[in-house]
Design a protein that fits this description.
Elements lengths: L2 E9 L3 E2 L28 E2 L6 E10 L14 H7 L2 E10 L7 E2 L12 E2 L22 E2 L20 E15 L2 E10 L6 E2 L5 E2 L10 E3 L3 E9 L1
Parallel strand pairs: 6-12
Antiparallel strand pairs: 1-4, 2-3, 4-5, 5-9, 7-8, 9-10, 10-14, 11-13
């Protein structure tokens, strides 16, 4: 009856000993550096691209108003132009954050990128907005000796902020004549204007460690469009 929905859920786990990513899709997880090329077993961890949970919900609804629909089939042309032919569509994306990598500021190791020692639980709790300056528990890390590999895994079992965003569109069709119509579209990305925070600074020992300074997805973006079907 004019309503279509699709729900897709993915539960997964990706493990590797090296990850590479382009800045063009850094929000999917970035690259990671090897600490010790002579011990690749020690590099095995969650991938920088691991997404544990991902839910995508889409839907479209043709309102039952206007010519050829449940109500309004006998409307005159002006009323049908105003009230008939409307449709609504949307997509919601809900995705867990990416595993976080921590490096050592000023680290020194001859054949790789030194990581700190992991001596506790690096996670903090509470809303992300309250942890903008302290997303990591700094007491969970310590600086390893010179040229000694740190004990922190390549990617922690601790994730960055999740993604929750909704896109929507409002559509209206105007019948020109038989087999021809004009479609008006009002589309919005991140329609709720929810801030999707980026990952925190990951260099232990730096002044920006654990601080979130940006977003993964921009603020609400609205655009208008017209299509002519013939």
């Amino acid at each position: 009856k004019g309503l279509t929905t699709l729900v897709h859920y993915t539960w997964s786990k990706m493990i590797d000993n090296s990850s590479h990513g382009s800045g063009n899709y850094s929000w999917l997880g970035g690259s990671t550096s090897i600490q010790n090329i002579w011990n690749l077993r020690g590099e095995r961890s969650l991938s920088a691209h691991d997404v544990a949970h991902r839910v995508v919900i889409t839907g479209a609804w043709e309102t039952p108003l206007g010519k050829g629909r449940k109500w309004g089939s006998d409307w005159n042309r002006p009323v049908d132009l105003l009230l008939g032919g409307w449709a609504i569509s949307g997509m919601g994306l809900f995705q867990s954050g990416m595993p976080l990598q921590v490096t050592q500021s000023g680290g020194s190791i001859w054949d790789g990128t030194q990581r700190p020692d992991l001596i506790g639980d690096p996670s903090t709790s509470g809303p992300v907005g309250d942890r903008m300056n302290k997303y990591f528990n700094e007491a969970a890390f310590s600086k390893p000796p010179l040229d000694v590999p740190g004990t922190a895994p390549r990617n922690l079992n601790y994730r960055g902020p999740s993604i929750r965003t909704v896109d929507a569109a409002l559509l209206k069709s105007f019948r020109v004549k038989e087999g021809q119509r004009v479609e008006f579209r009002l589309e919005a990305q991140n329609v709720t204007n929810t801030p999707i925070f980026g990952d925190p600074g990951n260099s232990f020992g730096s002044t920006s460690f654990g601080q979130i300074s940006g977003t993964k997805i921009g603020s609400r973006n609205v655009q208008l469009g017209f299509k002519y079907y013939f």
